[in-house]
């Protein structure tokens, strides 16, 4: 049995992500949790002739049933940005939502892999970790901030600019998931870039989310590309943990000591049956990338401290 629980399943990300997970033959049970509308989403998806059974759960009293027996919990619950907002502006609402869901995970699915999509990821991942610690069930190998959309965007943008096939264009993206904390390692692509190209591509990757927020003009942020990225991430975890394939890597935001003093950091991680098998060290950075990393560190540290403090305050 491979149960995947999606928390926030009725939302802009939740629905297409649930569709893609329903299409994944490795999933045998899909639990769709939200505070509204999951019975309808579940009924709709349940007609698709793939192996997963689908059930909708609504409201806190059904969180236990949604989580019990879960192999992977994916969390896209919370509010998205509107134009003019930063991801950190979402903290006040989303921190509480994520804390509540993490408490459920700690109680009812303490061994599950937890994949956090809700923003601000730089802070919501430490929030989940602190809640799990309070319940004595934190396993850093099993908690992930999903930064896959940055990787997906980076390969699209680089292939657009330099030619080549986007799926074959691999760009590690390190650090965190907001503005200057996003550190694309363009030097790893094998392409050569002028300084102008480097600056333009770096900025586009760092602020790709803003492009979508602006284009949606008040109707939210990236949902479909995020669903694609989230489904890719979940599939990588399933391939490593269920089919036991080796050598599967994703860039993801995990507890790490690759950058001293930065407790959570996105870098290349190899997955194994128990989640994180190996956190890769930092790749060789160009002088340009080292500067980006130096600029990312203070903000990342602040975002992490803010999440930790939220859970541990009185
Ligand atoms: N990690 C990443 O790369 C990305 C993260 N995001 C983030 O994902 C989150 C969700 O975005 P959208 O799906 O566009 O928002 P949305 O508003 O369309 O959907 C959010 C869903 O969460 C549900 N929800 C609210 N409170 C809840 C609770 N206490 N328990 C369970 N569900 C609850 C809502 O009912 C809604 O269905 C946002 O925080 C957004 O910033 C968005 C894109 C990329
Ligand atoms: O920009 C946002 O608020 C949503 C997000 O995280 C992204 O698209 O990368």
Automatic annotation (TrEMBL):
The keyword Secreted does not apply. GO terms for biological process: malate metabolic process; tricarboxylic acid cycle. InterPro entries: L-lactate/malate_DH, Lactate/malate_DH_C, Lactate/malate_DH_N, Lactate_DH/Glyco_Ohase_4_C, Malate_DH_AS, Malate_DH_type1, NAD(P)-bd_dom_sf. Substrate binds at residues 81, 87, 119, 153. Residues 2-145 form the Lactate/malate dehydrogenase N-terminal domain. Keywords: NAD, Oxidoreductase, Tricarboxylic acid cycle. PROSITE patterns: MDH. SUPFAM superfamilies: LDH C-terminal domain-like, NAD(P)-binding Rossmann-fold domains. Its EC number is 1.1.1.37. It comes from the Eukaryota. It catalyses: (S)-malate + NAD(+) = oxaloacetate + NADH + H(+). The active site is at residue 177. One of its GO terms (molecular function) is L-malate dehydrogenase (NAD+) activity. Residues 147-311 form the Lactate/malate dehydrogenase C-terminal domain. NAD(+) binds at residues 8-14, 34, 94, 117-119, 226. GO terms for cellular component: cytoplasm. The keyword Cytoplasm does not apply. Belongs to the LDH/MDH superfamily. MDH type 1 family. Homodimer. This is Malate dehydrogenase.
């Amino acid at each position: 049995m491979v149960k995947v629980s999606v928390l926030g399943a009725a939302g802009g990300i939740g629905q297409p992500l649930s569709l893609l997970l329903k299409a994944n033959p490795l999933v045998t049970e899909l639990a769709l949790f939200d505070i509204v509308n999951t019975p309808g989403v579940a009924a709709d998806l349940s007609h698709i002739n793939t192996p997963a059974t689908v059930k909708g759960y609504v409201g806190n009293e059904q969180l236990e049933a949604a989580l019990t027996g879960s192999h992977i919990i994916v969390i896209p619950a919370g509010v998205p940005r509107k134009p003019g907002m930063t991801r950190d502006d979402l903290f006040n609402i989303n921190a509480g939502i994520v804390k509540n869901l993490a408490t459920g995970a700690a109680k009812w699915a303490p061994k599950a892999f937890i994949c956090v999509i809700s923003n601000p990821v730089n802070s919501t991942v430490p929030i989940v970790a602190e809640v799990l610690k309070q319940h004595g069930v934190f396993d850093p190998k099993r908690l992930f901030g999903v930064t896959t959309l940055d990787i997906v965007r980076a390969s699209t943008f680089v292939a657009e600019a330099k030619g080549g096939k986007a799926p074959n264009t691999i760009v590690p993206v390190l650090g965190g998931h907001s503005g200057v904390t996003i550190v694309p390692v363009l030097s790893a692509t094998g392409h050569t870039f002028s300084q102008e190209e480097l600056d333009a591509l770096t900025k586009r990757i760092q602020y790709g989310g803003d492009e979508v927020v602006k284009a949606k003009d008040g109707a939210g942020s990236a949902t479909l590309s995020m669903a694609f990225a989230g489904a890719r991430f979940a599939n990588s975890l399933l391939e490593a943990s269920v089919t036991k394939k080796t050598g599967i890597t994703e860039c993801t935001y995990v507890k790490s000591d690759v950058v001293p003093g930065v407790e959570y950091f996105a870098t290349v991680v190899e997955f194994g049956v128990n989640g994180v098998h190996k956190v890769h060290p930092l790749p060789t950075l160009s002088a340009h990338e080292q500067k980006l990393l130096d600029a990312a560190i203070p903000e990342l540290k602040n975002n992490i401290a803010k999440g930790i403090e939220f859970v541990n305050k009185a």
